[in-house]
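Hey, sorry to bother you again with one of my protein questions. I've been puzzling over a protein and I'd love to understand its fold better. Take your time with it, there's no hurry, and the full record follows here:
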Amino acid sequence: MNLVERLRSHANWCISCAGGNIPDEAATEIEAADAIERLQKELETAREALEPFARVADSYEPDEGDDACVAWAHDFTIGSLRRARDARRTTKGGGE
């Protein structure tokens, strides 16, 4: 059982013990589980958006002190750039 499942299970137990009312502890656990799930989805979206760039970075190994050089041989698309931009916008703190 992962953390989200444990939080939801304990919250449900608290609610059943409280006769169907939602105690503060259960509400907090439900809120935490929801936040964890949302952040996991955001992280997966960001990882997927970064994948084309990570593949290109692999072709520039080993590091030859060329970090300031323009990467000219790439296989990512304009769609890859847009997915990366959108992932940044949808994650908390991503900004514009």
